[in-house]
C-alpha cells in the first residue's frame, strides 16, 4: 500500500435495517468517506444519527445494503466470511460501544491481550508491543490476572482498547471509547490512541460525544440523519 492510499474508503454507502415485521430504518445514506494512513478522524453527531452503524460497516461486522466499503484495498461487501475474518485480523482493531463484546469474559485481562496478539497479525509497521507493557499503558497492570467479566465497565473499555491495539493494526475504530471513563482515565485512552497514530501511523476513526477528544484529532465529520454533513 502506498503512503497516500486510503486505509478505508466508503463509496456511497447506505444501510437499511429491516426488522422481523419488515419495518425498515434507513440508518445511513450516500456516505463518502476516506481515511488515510496516520489520519485521526472524529465522527460526531446526535444520538441515532448513524455513527455506530457506520463504524460497524467499517469494521466489516455488518455489510452495507448499498455502496462499497473498501479496507486495505478490499471491498468488504464482496468478501466471503473467511475473507472478512482475514481483513479483520490483519487490518483492523475495533473498540465497540459495549466493550464486553470484544472480550473473552472468562479469560484474564492478560490472556485477552495475548490471545489477540496471536490471532491478529497487523500489517502496520513495527513489532508487537509486549502484553504487560500494553496492560500497563491502559492502567490495568494491577488487574492483569483478573477475569474480564469481573472488571468494571471502564476497565473493560480500556482492556478492549489494549486488545484492539495488540496486533498493531493500521486502522483503529473506536465507538465512544471514553464514554464510561472519568476525565483522567479518558485522557489516558486518548493519549494511547494518539501514540499509536504518532509512533506507528495507525489511522483512527473515533465516534465521540467528547469535545476534548474530537478537538485533539485531525478531522471532524458530523453525521446527521444518516448523512455526512
Ligand atoms: N440493529 C438495528 N436494527 C434496527 N434499527 C437499528 C439497529 N441499530 C441501529 N438502528 C437504528 O439506526 C439508526 C442509527 O443508529 P446508530 O447507528 O446506533 O446511531 P448512533 O450511533 O449515531 O447513535 C437509529 O435510528 C437506530 O434506531
Ligand atoms: Mg452509537
From TrEMBL:
<dbReference type="InterPro" id="IPR015854">
    <property type="entry name" value="ABC_transpr_LolD-like"/>
</dbReference>
<dbReference type="InterPro" id="IPR003593">
    <property type="entry name" value="AAA+_ATPase"/>
</dbReference>
<dbReference type="InterPro" id="IPR017911">
    <property type="entry name" value="MacB-like_ATP-bd"/>
</dbReference>
<dbReference type="InterPro" id="IPR027417">
    <property type="entry name" value="P-loop_NTPase"/>
</dbReference>
<dbReference type="GO" id="GO:0005886">
    <property type="term" value="C:plasma membrane"/>
</dbReference>
<feature type="domain" description="ABC transporter">
    <location>
        <begin position="8"/>
        <end position="229"/>
    </location>
</feature>
<dbReference type="GO" id="GO:0016887">
    <property type="term" value="F:ATP hydrolysis activity"/>
</dbReference>
<keyword id="KW-0067">ATP-binding</keyword>
<keyword id="KW-0449">Lipoprotein</keyword>
<dbReference type="InterPro" id="IPR003439">
    <property type="entry name" value="ABC_transporter-like_ATP-bd"/>
</dbReference>
<dbReference type="GO" id="GO:0022857">
    <property type="term" value="F:transmembrane transporter activity"/>
</dbReference>
<dbReference type="GO" id="GO:0005524">
    <property type="term" value="F:ATP binding"/>
</dbReference>
<keyword id="KW-0813">Transport</keyword>
<protein>
    <submittedName>
        <fullName>ABC-type lipoprotein export system ATPase subunit</fullName>
    </submittedName>
</protein>
<dbReference type="InterPro" id="IPR017871">
    <property type="entry name" value="ABC_transporter-like_CS"/>
</dbReference>
<dbReference type="Pfam" id="PF00005">
    <property type="entry name" value="ABC_tran"/>
</dbReference>
<keyword id="KW-0547">Nucleotide-binding</keyword>
Amino acid at each position: 500500500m502506498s503512503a497516500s492510499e486510503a486505509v478505508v474508503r466508503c463509496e456511497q454507502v447506505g444501510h437499511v435495517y429491516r426488522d422481523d415485521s419488515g419495518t425498515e430504518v434507513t440508518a445511513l445514506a450516500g456516505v463518502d468517506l476516506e481515511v488515510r494512513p496516520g489520519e485521526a478522524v472524529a465522527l460526531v453527531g446526535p444520538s441515532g444519527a448513524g455513527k455506530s452503524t457506520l463504524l460497524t460497516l467499517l469494521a466489516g461486522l455488518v455489510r452495507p445494503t448499498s455502496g462499497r466499503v473498501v479496507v486495505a484495498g478490499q471491498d468488504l461487501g464482496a468478501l466471503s466470511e473467511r475473507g472478512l475474518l482475514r481483513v479483520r485480523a490483519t487490518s483492523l482493531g475495533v473498540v465497540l460501544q459495549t466493550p464486553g463484546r470484544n472480550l473473552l469474559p472468562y479469560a484474564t485481562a492478560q490472556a485477552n491481550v495475548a490471545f489477540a496478539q496471536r490471532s491478529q497479525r497487523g500489517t502496520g509497521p513495527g513489532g508487537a508491543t509486549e502484553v504487560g507493557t500494553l496492560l500497563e499503558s491502559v492502567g490495568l497492570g494491577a488487574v492483569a490476572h483478573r477475569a474480564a467479566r469481573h472488571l468494571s465497565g471502564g476497565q473493560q473499555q480500556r482492556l478492549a482498547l489494549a486488545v484492539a491495539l495488540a496486533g498493531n493494526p493500521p486502522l483503529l475504530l473506536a465507538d465512544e471509547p471514553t464514554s464510561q471513563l472519568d476525565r483522567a482515565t479518558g485522557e489516558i485512552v486518548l493519549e494511547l490512541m494518539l501514540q499509536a497514530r504518532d509512533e506507528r501511523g495507525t489511522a483512527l476513526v473515533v465516534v465521540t460525544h467528547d469535545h476534548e477528544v474530537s478537538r485533539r484529532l485531525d478531522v471532524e465529520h458530523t453525521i446527521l440523519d444518516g448523512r455526512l454533513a
